[in-house]
């Protein structure tokens, strides 16, 4: 696992920010599960997972990705929009201007990105 974590300029601690932070941790767990599940045999062959956290102005971005090569025969059998994705939808919707996406890149890499505004 490779991490690139930039400290966030967190707002003053209050109950709203603490709840948002807990939701971000929950999202990280769901995203890690997705990235690893989609990269392990029989779906693919990952050897590394990257986690990146950064901030530009008030916008924060959390990215989780693998270096997998997808096995072609498994692409058609995958379900879209499972429980994990629904949970990540719900978590992103609770964050200020929260949005997320999961990309299956042409080289087989799976990348999940969450971004939100620090209030």
Poorly predicted runs are 73-79
- Beta percentage is 25-35%
Terminal residue distance: 30 Å
Largest sheet: 5 strands, mixed
Q: Considering DSSP H and I runs of 4 or more, what fraction of the residues is helical? A: 25-40%
Features:
single chain, 119 residues, alpha+beta, 5-stranded mixed β-sheet, 5 strands, 29% strand, globular
Describe this structure in words.
This protein is of the alpha+beta class. 33% of the residues lie in helices and 29% in strands. The chain contains three helices and five strands, in the order βαββααββ. The chain has helices at residues 15-37, 72-75, 83-94; strands at residues 2-5, 49-56, 59-66, 99-104, 110-117. Strands 1-2-3-5-4 form a five-stranded mixed β-sheet, with helices on one face. β2 and β3 (59-66) form a beta hairpin. α1 (15-37) packs antiparallel against α3 (83-94). The longest helix is centred in the N-terminal third of the chain and has 23 residues, at 15-37. The radius of gyration is 15 Å and the shape is globular. Mean pLDDT is 84; it is low at 73-79.
